[in-house]
Amino acid sequence: MTHRLFLTLAAIGLGLGWTATARAGDDFIAPVSDPLTLRECGECHMAFAPGFLPARSWRAMMAGLANHFGQDASLAQGDRAAITATLEAGAADAPGGRRGLAAEFLSWVDPAGTPLRLTLNPAFLHEHRRVTPERLSARGVRSITACPACHRNAERGWFDDD
Ligand code: HEC
Ligand code: HEC
């Protein structure tokens, strides 16, 4: 009986240990690796991982590059099509997506909505609730979109520090 209880506790312990390891994946999101996307979408800010948004968001964004958050980010037709395909393939809801951080962010996206800002996702807002304008300027940046100012491995897809 005692022996059995021990085995049960050991099994629960292993289960908890495994859960902790699996959760480490919650700090990772597959980064952009396509050179064209890195170049064209990493010019004004870091190239955001496609897994932060669903495919319909990337399609909408790529259809409106002439007025991209107040800037002209237009591209030649061929480049635009290629980058759209890259972003859609890595989107949170793409086949093989729905993992780690991408799954967490997607779980907050209204199925009827098409968000363009990952920084307005409730998971993001919650994680950054303590980031004040003072904290941004202490890092030498004005916008929370400058992820690498605080997450030094952001461009490699890791957000496990601050
Ligand atoms: C000419 C400069 C420029 C280029 C090129 C550019 N962007 Fe942006 N982008 C901006 C600006 C400005 C913002 C708003 C930043 C802010 O609010 O701090 C923005 C914001 C974004 C956001 C929303 C960030 C948030 O708040 O969640 C996404 C996503 C984004 N861009 C994706 C892209 C993609 C994809 C490309 C390549 C097709 C691209 N950008 C190219 C200037 C640019
Ligand atoms: C001014 C600094 C700052 C900037 C800029 C910033 N973050 Fe953060 N981020 C933080 C802090 C602080 C936390 C909370 C860390 C904690 O609680 O351990 C955090 C947490 C996170 C987490 C949760 C990590 C975890 O351990 O669960 C993610 C994901 C994240 N940030 C992504 C981003 C992305 C994507 C951007 C850019 C769009 C960004 N951050 C920009 C400071 C920043």
Can you walk me through this structure?
- This protein is an all-alpha fold.
- The chain has one domain.
- 44% of the residues lie in helices and 0% in strands.
- It contains 7 helices and no strands.
- Helix 3 (55-63) runs antiparallel to helix 4.
- The longest helix has 22 residues, at 2-23.
- It starts with a helix and ends in a 24-residue tail after the last helix.
- Residues 1-24 have low confidence and may be disordered.
- The site of one heme C (HEC) has 17 residues, from helix 2.
- One heme C is lined by residues 40-41, 43-45, 48, 61, 68-69, 71, 73, 83, 117-119, 143, 145.
SSE class? mainly alpha
- Could you say which overall geometry the principal axes of the C-alpha atoms support? globular
Question: How confident overall, as mean pLDDT?
Answer: 88
Hetero compounds: heme C
Helix content: 40-55%
InterPro entries: Dihaem_cytochrome-c
Pfam families: DHC
Keywords: Signal
Protein name: Diheme cytochrome c
Tell me briefly what this model is.
The chain has 162 residues and is mainly α. 44% of the residues lie in helices and 0% in strands. It binds heme C (HEC) (2 copies).
Tags for this entry?
162 residues; mainly alpha; 0% strand; globular; disordered N terminus; binds heme C; Diheme cytochrome c; signal; Dihaem_cytochrome-c
What's the helix and strand layout?
Layout: H1 2-23, H2 35-41, H3 55-63, H4 77-90, H5 100-106, H6 122-127, H7 133-138
Bound molecules: heme C (2 copies).
The site of one heme C has 17 residues, from helix 2.
